[in-house]
């Protein structure tokens, strides 16, 4: 499985909400951060979005936006508008003048992701992914967003499964549309995938996370000297190569533990450790608690029996 697909699989998006957002005249609203992913597709007109205290960004008709972990933001008809506090709603939203045809329309939505790995995985993604209509990539996103809205409004059999799959497709489409040319994105997974040499390394790590990777071996795969590779990888991805490998191993372990894995020996082998003891030590150092304690905290089912682990 390639890196983008694996990240989306571990995020396991679910519980979508989708609604129309319209406006007329002069208006501005401000939302507090809520940490879960949000998306929007501008259907008509334009608006201005500002994340936190950042500069406003114009969203025009046909633009698609994904916020992997929605921060505090403001939305307004024009830059510099006074913004009133607003709260997220599951219902259709109207901003500005209450009468008359809206001059702005947007399809907005939000969904939830699996909490066990949310912080680690979202740290590899940019704060905002903006796909402009002019780039010619938003037609597929509009189709997916429309299907999500249809499923949200209906109560048909299989609704939850279909929504989860549509959200997965939307995330993959959005992320691969943003795999950049060198230097276009801040450090993270997408920036690394934008460089062919580093992309080869990242795909190799994800293809065999249990392999005994070394910096020298990965540098050879990238076709670079050890020092050049280590520096370039760290600059592009935001962490050292072996640190990325350890983070990904722990991400896979967190996911398995949250789903009720039964054998710690087997889990240790799967993520590249010689023994359950070595894995438990590494897990405690990285996560701050033992695998047993993590499983108790995050498993939604019966607490799993983790074999071959000393008491927490």
As for the number of domains, it is 3
Instruction: Please estimate the helix content.
Output: 40-55%
CATH domain topology of the largest domain: Jelly Rolls
Number of distinct beta strands: 11
Tally the helices: 12
- Which value, in Å, is the CA radius of gyration? 22 Å
Beta fraction: 15-25%
Biggest β-sheet, characterized?
A: 6 strands, mixed
Give an overview in words.
- InterPro entries: AraC_lig, AraC_XylS_family_regulators, Homeodomain-like_sf, HTH_AraC, HTH_AraC-typ_CS.
- This is AraC family transcriptional regulator.
- Keywords: DNA-binding, Transcription, Transcription regulation.
- The protein is α+β, with helices and mostly antiparallel strands and 312 residues long.
- It folds into three domains: 175 residues, Sandwich (Jelly Rolls); 51 residues, no CATH class; 56 residues, Arc Repressor Mutant, subunit A, CATH 1.10.10.60.
- It has twelve helices and eleven strands.
- The strands form two sheets. The protein has a six-stranded mixed sheet with strand order 9-1-10-3-6-11. A five-stranded mixed sheet has the order 5-4-7-2-8, with no helix packed on it.
- A hairpin with a 5-residue loop joins β4 and β5.
- α1 packs antiparallel against α4, α6 packs across α7 and α7 packs across α8.
Note the main attributes of this structure.
Arc Repressor Mutant, subunit A, 12 helices, alpha+beta, disordered C terminus, 312 residues, single chain, five-stranded mixed β-sheet, Jelly Rolls
Topology of helices and strands:
Layout: H1 3-11, E1 14-24, E2 28-31, E3 38-44, E4 46-51, E5 57-60, E6 64-67, E7 73-76, E8 84-85, E9 93-96, E10 104-112, H2 115-122, E11 129-131, H3 138-153, H4 159-177, H5 189-193, H6 196-207, H7 215-222, H8 226-237, H9 241-258, H10 264-270, H11 276-287, H12 291-298
Parallel strand pairs: 1-9, 2-8
Antiparallel strand pairs: 1-10, 2-7, 3-6, 3-10, 4-5, 4-7, 6-11
Helix pairs in contact: 1-4, 2-9, 3-4, 6-7, 7-8, 10-11
